[in-house]
Amino acid sequence: MTDATISGGHLVAKALKAEGVDVIFTLCGGHIIDIYDGCVDEGIAVVDVRHEQVAAHAADGYARITGKPGVAVVTAGPGTTDAVTGVANAFRAESPMLLIGGQGALSQHKMGSLQDLPHVDMMTPITKFAATVPHTSRAADMVSMAFRECYNGAPGPSFLEIPRDILDARVPVDSAVVPVAGRYRTSTRSVGDPASVERLADLLSTSEKPCVLLGTQVWTARATDAAVDFARTLNVPVFMNGAGRGTLPPGDPHHFHLSRRYAFNNADLIIIVGTPFDFRMGYGRRLPQGAKVVQIDLDYRTVGKNRDIDLGLVGDPGAILAATVQAASGRTGGTGAASVARKAWFEELRAQEEEAYRKRLPRQLSDAHPIHPLRLAHEINEFLTEDSIYIGDGGDIVTFSGGVVQPKSPGHWMDPGPLGTLGVGIPFVLAAKYARPDQEVVALFGDGAFSLTGWDFETLVRYKLPFVGVIGNNSSMNQIRYGQEAKYGKERGRIGNTLGDVRYDEFARMLGGYGEEVRDPADIAPAMRRARESGLPSLINVWVDPDAYAPGTMNQTMYK
């Protein structure tokens, strides 16, 4: 046996390195500092934030941007509970991240040690894997185990707590279990049941009015190329939601956006890829019973949940779409680009798109004061470049933007996901700019959403990570205000949802960033350009009409 020894924290760092992790997001605490020491030796960056929720959201965001698991490291007790929201958001968004939490020493178990809480019990319902590291020699092994579980089926978060004496103790190097990079987990790119792929090819070959909805899993599984080839080769109109936005660029003949409800109501074949039948889909009720419905998902539990389907395929979306293209090769029928029925269907949908756009355009170009939120969304959409990553963090203001802002490339749209968590914006900016420093990041915040994690604007200044931030400021939690007015009347519409008239542009300047205030719609674009040119983290404080509500807000199921 060698005399060389290694600590638990250094074993954790070695396991992170084996997974390809190059940064951890953290807020310091006495329980976890040996991990920092190990990260220094392994060349892993330590990015420190001002709130553990920010660290967890940043790990989630980093996973979305890079495709690698994000990692947050927090101390025990309140450090771990502060991170719960970030983990829960990643759980609903199917984002692969690892949260490592400190814990009191095992030698003080149940004695009332500092910050002792039952972390594993709390994390189990919102993770794919949650455990305590029981011995120093297992530290690296259990980190790799946690990463493996992140990719079991649909991705998601894992949690490990490491007691302080386990982390700080040293064990002989040759007694420690250190899994070898690339050899402790394998590909999950399953094509599913070949017979189901053949059945889908048959359905497409005879369909006159098909459409496909590409959801978040298309980006999560890095299935963009397969999805694009599927749409173009088989000539299928494409709608996109969540992180699936940007799979096809605006202007592509197969890209549709504003006619989704019409398409669902009139299609004879609807293919849902990587999107559950949750509240965003009306729990499946938005799909008519007369259409054939096909669902493709990484998670067996999602397929057919809340609505019956005609065909379900469980596996990697990219692999399934590519196999379907191959299976459909050479077949005659509706998949031919010259098909009269299919050509008419495209023209029908395009006419619906143009009509919806014309109806909205007057508000989108409105010169009204205060500024209409659709005008703000329009200016942001015009401002985006091919490389701009767009991040939405808010309620009503981001709902407005969802119908207007169109990312021009895959992986360039980030929103909280189905948990609807406000406060993800600054952490997502941190993750995106750290991972892609040469790409522009443009973020739209509601004033209420920004307030939740806005102090970490200083972290962006400290790490010299410039971005263009826009706050749609109506001094309100307006999405909730709408529901209160609709339910209880205008006289009770201002209970618990009204904020102060905060000058966020001054806040940005105070912390060392760039800030401007905008009250005239004509000034939005010039202010954003100056923010871009400043080379600093920025906030453009745009005063928007508090009495304008997004259609998506007025149609929310919680108000029905």
From TrEMBL:
InterPro entries: DHS-like_NAD/FAD-binding_dom, THDP-binding, Thiamin_PyroP_enz_cen_dom, Thiamin_PyroP_enz_TPP-bd_dom, TPP-bd_CS, TPP_enz, TPP_enzyme_TPP-bd
Residue ranges annotated for the Thiamine pyrophosphate enzyme N-terminal TPP-binding domain, each copy included: 7-116
Domain Thiamine pyrophosphate enzyme TPP-binding, chain residue ranges per copy: 400-542
Keywords linked to the UniProt accession: Metal-binding, Thiamine pyrophosphate
Domain Thiamine pyrophosphate enzyme central: 197-323
Pfam families registered for this protein in UniProt: TPP_enzyme_C, TPP_enzyme_M, TPP_enzyme_N
Cofactor: Mg(2+); thiamine diphosphate
PROSITE patterns, per database record: TPP_ENZYMES
Superkingdom assignment: Bacteria
Keyword field contains Metal-binding: yes
PANTHER family in the record: 2-HYDROXYACYL-COA LYASE 2, THIAMINE PYROPHOSPHATE ENZYMES
Recorded family membership: Belongs to the TPP enzyme family.
The protein, known as: Thiamine pyrophosphate-binding protein
